[in-house]
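anyone else get weird line breaks when pasting these?? whatever heres mine. first is seq + tokens for prot A
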Amino acid sequence: MSRAAFMTRVRDAAAAGRAYRVHVPGNLPARVGYQGAGHDPVARLAAEVTAVGGQAHVVENLDAARAKLAELLDALAPRSALCWRHPLLDRLDLRGLLSACGAKRLDHEALSPLSTPEARAAMIEADVGITSASYAIAETGTLVVEAAAGQERLASLLPPVHIAVIERAQILADLYDLFARLEDDGTGPAPSWLPSNLAMITGPSKTGDIELTLTTGVHGPGVWHVIVIR
């Protein structure tokens, strides 16, 4: 590739990236700084999830979230689901929803008694991963996942479909708020409050390694649903 062609690609990519810059009202005084995600973090999160290739489902309450999750499971007809143990998923009665659609629930409790090869085989065969998240970042449509016992990262990484359920209290405006919240939730001076494993998920798995052609679902889920409870 010639230098001119390379620089043209760089300029085109930079121009496309400007669509994701933060836009602020023109009448703000000069001293006003970063504006984050705007006045409606739920709507912004849903819009950004869609923009990065996911499917956002904004619902008003827990009952509506349960109905939407049941609808997705009926459409997917999974044989098994790799699941988190999480208070929000318990409130949704995830166990009952999976039982109703005939899917086997694979969580920490179910997998722990298995040998390592048996557990690995069961997880690889899972058709869908169902999680919540520690936080969600509205400005970028990002889920923040802290790995823990019962909340293994593989649930969001291994199955071909990932469904995450988020409620309003988990949504942060922007990345600056995330690190402030992590420090508030942790103990001791930084960086002791950082979790041992922190991942940020923005959209389904994508790669452009091969001839700069964007391909979805190569290194992780190719389908990404986020149910947002307003």
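and prot B, same format (seq, then tokens)
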Amino acid sequence: MIVTLTANPSLDRTVNLPAPLERGTVQRAESVISQAGGKGVNISRACVAADLPSIAVLPAPKGDPFVLELLAAGIDCRPVEHAGDLRVNITITEPDGTTTKLNSPGPQATPRLLDELQEALVRRADSADWIVLAGSLPPGAPSEWYADLVTALRRAGARVAVDTSDAPLKALVDALPTSAPHLMKPNGEELASFTGHHADELEADPAAAAEAARELVSQGVESVLVTLGPRGAVLVDADGAWHASPPPTTVVSTVGAGDSSLFGYLFGDVTRRDPGQRLALAVAYGSAAAGLPGTTIPHPRQVQTDLVHVTRLDLPSGD
């Protein structure tokens, strides 16, 4: 079972334009898609599609339409009561796949809410294959909250995956090795933000991305999955490094592609695949998501692992 935490859930609205976005003008949308979302929620959606048990933990009133939508979709949603309107994230997609995101902050978190979210996760630590901490933190949450939560969950016996950015990511890295999760999933830009590399360099060179990711492994992180957009992804652990090239993909929307990649890796781990196969599933899932509109999460039948090429990387000695 995969337990997900979406600490700052959102109503995701995707506006699909028939022509490039022109600032300062009036344009008509081709379509608008609205969906209950957030990184953890997206991973739980993928679990449902793959018949993998999942529990989605998030802050929201129990009768909120957001929660009811997830329950109607077959997602075992366990909301922690919290007042305030959920945030709305707007994504604008252009015909060539260019994506512009406008994310709102969300309601203010309280110490009571953060304590109850932690309790909900710790209570399920010994029954879950993975606990996933995904996305941004709500206003009012200290940036080190994920780092502290990883420590508490590891103490409770959980295997923890983290996908976040900005201040919470920096705080997590600063607290290594005490806060080391079993899996981290940065993209190239996020990895560059705390390793001193340039994002363009890492995204263009899988070997450079793998070397940078190896710094996290040396600080106690068991595995690092780095998504590189059109260059696929790299996986690094104590036993080696691998790169996977994606299948040919016509990009429709990149929103949710990283979440799908993370699920693909976790799915491969739960089904006991080897590292190369887990990486292939991650890249295949991410590519399939990029070819779908909005934050649509791919079904396993849409995932083409046979078109993913995995190679082992020969990195210089870390001595």
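btw re prot B: The chain has a mean pLDDT of 94. The domain at 2-18+31-313 is CATH 3.40.1190.20 (UDP-N-acetylmuramoyl-L-alanine:D-glutamate ligase).
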